[in-house]
Structure formats: C-alpha cells, structure tokens
Amino acid sequence: MSRLKQVCMDRAISPNEVKVVQWLLDHALGDVRAYRLHPVEELHVVGGCSCGCSSLYFSSKRGSLQRLADEVALYPDGQTAGLMLWGRDGEIVWLEVYDFEPESSHRRPDVSHLCTWEDWGRRDLGRANQEQQKI
Fold first, then answer.
1. Domain that holds residue 120
2. Using CA atoms, how far apart are residues 101 and 134, in angstroms rounded to an integer?
3. What pLDDT digit, counting tens, does each position of 4-49 carry?
4. What's the whole-model pTM score?
5. d(CA 98, CA 53)
6. Does any domain span residue 1?
7. Phi and psi angles of residue 57, each rounded to the nearest 5 degrees, phi first
8. Does residue 64 fall inside a structural domain?
C-alpha cells in the first residue's frame, strides 16, 4: 500500500462509493471475475490517507497488490483526478484517488464524473479540434 500514513476509519462503504467501485470493475484492466464474487456493498472502509485525498482502504493487510482499474474523474469545474482500484487474492483492498492538479484528489468523485482514459483523450482531441477551427 501507500507509504503515507493511514488514518483509521470504521464504516460501511457509502452508496456513491459502491457505484464508483462497480464502475471501475466494469472498466477493469483485465479479468476481475474473482473480485466480483463478494458484493461491493459489503466492503468496509478501514482507513483513509493522511494526506487529505479521498483514497479509501478496505483492508489493513499488507502484501503485494494487483492494479484492477485505472481511470479518470472529470469534475464539472474542469479539474481532474486519477482513480485506481487495487486488489489482492480476490479481495478489493484500496480505492486510490490521486492528483492531476493540486488537491483534485481531495474530492470524492461521483460516478457521473468518471471516464476512461480513451474517452478523456477523445474529449481533449475534440476540444483541440474546436480550438483549431476558431483560428
């Protein structure tokens, strides 16, 4: 896990967090069938990151991790953050939210803010084409 200090928490996963994790599983990097055997709604938040980002830990066990998903949050105000979902042995253990811009990871993304890297690239390409046409 992260080298940053973990803040202890003890709560159920929120409905929005369930949707975010499910969306990430739907857009996973590979086969995540083993990670779908346990309902996401049953995940329990055991920690967060001390840096103030909205990353969540679902397990306090240490060990090597597998990156399950890696996508982007685009907020309505134009800020962006990265999201990675990590697992180990069929267990989802960490939802990482990281900065693209200062403190963009300090916000909890809504599932409506999520997009794939490919979709993000198409949006940027579309914007660049529109700007080029104005010139």
1. 6-134
2. 27
3. 567 899 999 999 999 999 999 999 999 999 999 999 999 999 999 8
4. 0.84
5. 7
6. no
7. -105, 135
8. yes
